[in-house]
Request: fold
Amino acid sequence: MGEIILRNYPFDNYKILFKPKTGLFIRIEDNGFPEPFWAPSGPELLDISITNWCSRSCSFCYKNSDKNGMHMAFEDYERIMVEAKANNVFQVALGGGNPNQHPQFCEILEVTRKYGIVPSYTTNGDGLNKKILEATSKYCGAVAVSAYEPYSNMNKILTKFFSFNVKTNIHFLLDCNTIEVALQWMKKPPNFLKNINAIIFLNYKPVGKNRTENFLLKNNTSFRELFQLVTSESYDFKIGFDSCSVSGLVSSQNGIDFNFIEPCDGARFSAYISENLLVYPCSFLGESHKGESLRNKSLREIWNKSSLFLEARNRLNSNKCNACSFQEKCFNGCPFFPEINLCNNTFLETKSIV
Reply:
């Protein structure tokens, strides 16, 4: 847990420094070479849905998770770990559904570490018990708690993780309604934020059974106020935004250090695997695109040859936004859902990839 991993990719002209205990991760390009655009040797991170089961059945869930959702077989998960280790994966982010309610969740965390990979997971807080919290503390790099109403429940959930010394983040879904709550939190942070590691704001995507563009963040200009607030004030915790928000971050220019901006890394440095072993560049593509199955192809073959992955890289590396001075910082925004972009560019295609 305390070691530092240094991995060299001489044919791709860069190195990676990774510290499993803290999550420190740095790509270092060789002298005279540009920052790498993608990792030909395989994804650095896998986002894995180990279950689509959830007791809440939230109307806004993009996975449509409920009590009828399926669990990934443990044997299938270990199969992924074999592939992950062979493809230089450093970390996995476990999701769902509510991942910690998978019946073999603790075994999944343990076997992940057995293959030298660091797990983390996102939870709504349901189903946490002593055994799960102990396994989380022993094996995980961090956890994220999804912020849902009633927010008054957050303190109880967070306290469980704090009592086991787990590095704990909050994932806050930003849409044109919830952003007002986010602004309130940033202006006067509630007490339950006191001991968190970070709050990560996630840009709403119109995906799922109740999808609607009415909730898009760009329908509310308050996101610029939020960007300005978090870059001008100091907090006791870290603040981050997902890469789906990058177009708004770079165009806001409110004290943003571009060295800490990471555009969409789907198909570049990360991939998503569903509970039925379908592989996609991004977890939001399940209902609109056809994934490649790990039952038929290896992760390396999918990563390097899948038309979906190739098209994602082409879109991110194109000059579709060549009239914008921030193109090299945000890589044209989201390659699959241009409607979520928080800038004024209209150059992105909306044609669906199948």
Remarks:
- Residues 346-354 have pLDDT under 50 and may be disordered.
